[in-house]
C-alpha cells in the first residue's frame, strides 16, 4: 500500500468513515478512529483535539476527514498544522468548493476530496465516485489506486464542476423525489392501494423515495443547503413544473411535445443508454410487484 501504513479517520464511526476505515485496513494500514462516539479509540470533539489525537495525526500517513462540511472545515483548520508534511488528507464531503478553499489555505501536503456517489452499505464495485485532487502528491495516487482496486469507477473532476454536476445529480434529483412523495401523500389515496395499483415508473420512484426517507436526514439536508448551485437547481425544477402545468392546462399539445423533444435532444446518446437501463429496472420491478 505504498507508504500509507498508519491512518486516522475523523468521523470513523459514521457510514462513510467506516467505509474508508475498511478500505485502509484491507490494504494493511493500522487505522485509528476519532469520533464523538464513546467507543472510538480516539473519542472526543475533533475541533478541540485531545493530546492523543494530535499525537496520532503527527504520525499518520493518511488522515481521512469523514465529517459533515460544517464540522469538516473547522476540523481541517484546527488539525492541519499537526499533520506530517508528507501525509495525505482525504475529505469526503458532498460539496467541495468550501473544502477546496480550506485545503488551499491550511493544508501543507497532498490532499484529495472524494464523494462516493452511492450509499456506503452498497458494494463499491461498478459504482461511481467523484474525486477532486485538491493538491497532488504520491499519497493521492495511492488512495485513488486503492479505490479503483475495489472496482469503483473513479471520475476525476474539479471542485466547481463537481458542485455544478451535483446540483443536477443530487440536489435536483433528491428534491424532485421528495416533492413527488409530498404530493402523493396529499392526494387522499391509501399508500397500500397505490402500491397495489402501481405502474413500473411509480414503483421505481417510490423505491428511490423510500431509500432517501430511510436514510440520514442530515446528509440529504446538507446536499440541499450547502451546494452553492442548489438554489438555482431547485428554482429550475419548480419552473419546469410550472411550465408543464401551464402547457397541460392550456391544452397546448405542440408545446408539450416540444418539451419532450428538447429533453431528448439534451440527453443525446445518454437517452438510449438510459432507456436500456430502464428496461432492466422494470424487469426487477415486475418481480417486486409479483411478491406483493
Concise synopsis of the structure shown:
The protein is an alpha/beta fold and 292 residues long. It is 58% helix and 14% strand.
Q: How would you characterize the overall build of this protein?
A:
With 292 residues, this protein is of the alpha/beta class. The chain folds into two domains: 6-157, NAD(P)-binding Rossmann-like Domain (Rossmann fold, 3-Layer(aba) Sandwich); 161-290. 58% of the residues lie in helices and 14% in strands. It has helices spanning 15-26, 51-59, 69-79, 97-106, 138-149, 159-185, 191-196, 200-213, 217-226, 230-249, 253-267, 269-290; strands at residues 6-10, 30-35, 42-43, 62-65, 88-91, 110-116, 128-135, 153-157. An eight-stranded mixed sheet has the order 3-2-1-4-5-6-7-8, sandwiched between helices. Helix 3 links the parallel strand 4 and strand 5 (88-91). Helix 6 crosses helix 10 (230-249). The longest helix has 27 residues, at 159-185. The N and C termini lie far apart (48 Å). This is Prephenate/arogenate dehydrogenase domain-containing protein. GO terms for molecular function: NAD+ binding; prephenate dehydrogenase (NAD+) activity; prephenate dehydrogenase (NADP+) activity. It comes from Actinoplanes siamensis. Residues 5-278 form the Prephenate/arogenate dehydrogenase domain. It holds the Pfam family PDH_C.
Amino acid at each position: 500500500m505504498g507508504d500509507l501504513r498508519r491512518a486516522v479517520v475523523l468521523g470513523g464511526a459514521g457510514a462513510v468513515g467506516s467505509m474508508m476505515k475498511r478500505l485502509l485496513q484491507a490494504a494493511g494500514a493500522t487505522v485509528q478512529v476519532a469520533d464523538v462516539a464513546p467507543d472510538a479509540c480516539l473519542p472526543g470533539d475533533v475541533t478541540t483535539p485531545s493530546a492523543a489525537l494530535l499525537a496520532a495525526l503527527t504520525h499518520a500517513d493518511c488522515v481521512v476527514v469523514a465529517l459533515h462540511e460544517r464540522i469538516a472545515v473547522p476540523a481541517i483548520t484546527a488539525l492541519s498544522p499537526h499533520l506530517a508534511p508528507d501525509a495525505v488528507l482525504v475529505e469526503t464531503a458532498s460539496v467541495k468548493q468550501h473544502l477546496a478553499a480550506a485545503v488551499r489555505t491550511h493544508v501543507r501536503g497532498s490532499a484529495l476530496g472524494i464523494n462516493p456517489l452511492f450509499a456506503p452499505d452498497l458494494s463499491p464495485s461498478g459504482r461511481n465516485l467523484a474525486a477532486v485532487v485538491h493538491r497532488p502528491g504520491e499519497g493521492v495516487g495511492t488512495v485513488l489506486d486503492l479505490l479503483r482496486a475495489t472496482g469503483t469507477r473513479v471520475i476525476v473532476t474539479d471542485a466547481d464542476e463537481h458542485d455544478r454536476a451535483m446540483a443536477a445529480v443530487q440536489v435536483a434529483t433528491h428534491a424532485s423525489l421528495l416533492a413527488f412523495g409530498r404530493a402523493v401523500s396529499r392526494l387522499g389515496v391509501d399508500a397500500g392501494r397505490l402500491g397495489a395499483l402501481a405502474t413500473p415508473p411509480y414503483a421505481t420512484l417510490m423505491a428511490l423515495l423510500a431509500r432517501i426517507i430511510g436514510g440520514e436526514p442530515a446528509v440529504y439536508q446538507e446536499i440541499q443547503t450547502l451546494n452553492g448551485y442548489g438554489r438555482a437547481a431547485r428554482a429550475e425544477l419548480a419552473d419546469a413544473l410550472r411550465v408543464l402545468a401551464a402547457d397541460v392546462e392550456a391544452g397546448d399539445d405542440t408545446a408539450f411535445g416540444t418539451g419532450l423533444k428538447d429533453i431528448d435532444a439534451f440527453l443525446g446518446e445518454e437517452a438510449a443508454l438510459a432507456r436500456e437501463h430502464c428496461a432492466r429496472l422494470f424487469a426487477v420491478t415486475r418481480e417486486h410487484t409479483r411478491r406483493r
